[in-house]
# Entry
Amino acid sequence: MEPVIHLRGVVCLLGRFPALAGVDLSVEQGEIVLLQGPNGAGKSTLLRLCAGLQPVATGTARVLGHDLATESHQVRVRVGLLAHATFLYDDLTVADNVRFWTLAAKADLDDAQRAMQRLGLADRLAEVKVSRLSTGQRRRVAIAILMARRPELWLLDEPHAGLDQDGRDLVDALVREAAEVGATVVIASHELDRAAQLAPRHVTIVGGAITAITADTAAGPAGVPEHQQPEAVRSAP
Amino acid sequence: MLRDARLIAAKDLRIELRSKVTASQILPFALLVLMLFAFALDPDSQALERATPGLFWVAVLFVTVLAVERSFSLEGGDGVRDALRLAGLEPGGVFLGKFAALVVQLLVVEVVLLLGVLLLYSRDLAGVGLLAATMLAATAGIGAAGTLYGVLAAGLRVRETLLPFLLLPVLAPVLIAATRAFESALDGVPSDGWPWFNLLAVFALVYIGIGILTFGSLLEES
# Structure
């Protein structure tokens, strides 16, 4: 079975700057993978690339069975990206935003309603304009929209950022539930303690290149197949 | 495509209903322009009477620049343009939806402006059919070209200053044809105006077609 994410020698340019400089990575269906690394390492660019939003300069990039160079449109509708930006219209209410993006993605409005209830958005916040929400509340709306889409591949960029304790626990529960029903999850995070508990496999990215892939047996059973180790790791004594 | 167009148009109009930018900012601006023209040209003179159709459409073009900038600033906030690309909407549908919402807003402004012209400039309303048809065709052309050039400028840092430079020369044929058609309608000789209406209709159809075909590529690059 083809991996959900299959990258070989992928280079991605932001202007003339190589944000990704020869990335090799494979992620299987149902896996939860943690992307870790310092600021500017290329984590967000890697997530955007996997979402089909960032063009591949060189290398091979296949996501959900599609070549990103030629079929990024087929990938986009099947992934859910939780980015730093929340993708919300400030002048619309919470309910308006959830409804619009759910219909835009041709997803089910009942799923959207359930997601709003789960995120605590269905009652008094539903008719509040997004411009009046706090950072954490905006984040909850973005997560509700992501849930309603039922993506096959979840790409989460700092998913715990801005959330209270209850919200963080909820994100963890949603990630586990998604993986249980076969979705694949990639999390970029600086909150390593929390994210590491979710993800059996940790990918370290520095300067646009993967420098280590390690397995955390405490988080789950997934190991690191040898072919998925980066060159530098495989050749280490 | 039409489903996506309805969705986008409804969203844009809902944002307008909730934010009231057209009603509270763009419409008063249009009326202000009209009043300034009246102050500059003595209402009792023949000059204002002769210039009325042209002044009306110049005011509409000023309003168009503001409305187009507003329409695409909605998609520029908080990563929304990325979300539109991820949603898998038909690009042609997005174009038609934004075009339709823009046309509705411009038509509302034009109706109020027309009432202002009749009151401020003391003009009689003759040739109602030609007047209405001209407004529809000219607004469709302005809306289609505005939507197309709006997305073209959307990704640029200098979009506020660049958009008028790109858009207004393109709309010069609409200004000329709509002004001539309005002159015929207001002078009570509508038959002279219908050829100008035909030109406006062709302009609108051409730009709607170009928009449907090219909007996807422009959205990707913006």
Notes: The interface with chain B takes residues 48, 51-53, 73, 76-77, 79, 81, 83-93, 96, 100-101, 103-106, 129 of chain A (CB under 8 Å). Confidence is low (pLDDT under 50) at residues 220-237 of chain A.
